[in-house]
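Example record

The entry below shows one chain as it appears in the dataset: sequence first, then structure tokens.
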Amino acid sequence: MNLTLPDWVPWWVPLVLLLPALLYGVAFLFMPFSVIGLKSRLEAIEARLDEIQTDLRHLSLRETRGNPTSADYDGVYVPPTPAPRRAEPVAERPPIPQALYDDDTPDDRPPPPPHTRPVRRMDPPRQEPRVNWPR
């Protein structure tokens, strides 16, 4: 971004505007975290994390001691065995549609003569759009 000032501004005005901005940036670089208030917040978070870790340690020790009131459900509950799944027949080909003929045998056509090319059915000629329209 190019910041330009008009020609009528004296040479010392950009320095006066730039100097406080530089001092503000340097103050943030050299300012200790305790001045901003981050140090006390980080210490509070660290203390709370220590409390949570000790609570987790106490809970894990309580679980490993072998609580006599805990029941062993392996002998009481037997999960049901799943029913065997029936294999569905896999279709090797699609079903055959009904016959299009009235009777069971199609009309026999004579084979084409040898060495002939297949011929398309003669449709009416297509109307192509005209490129050169009269103006």
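Notes for this example: Residues 2 and 14 are 13 Å apart (CA to CA). DSSP finds three helices and no strands in the chain.
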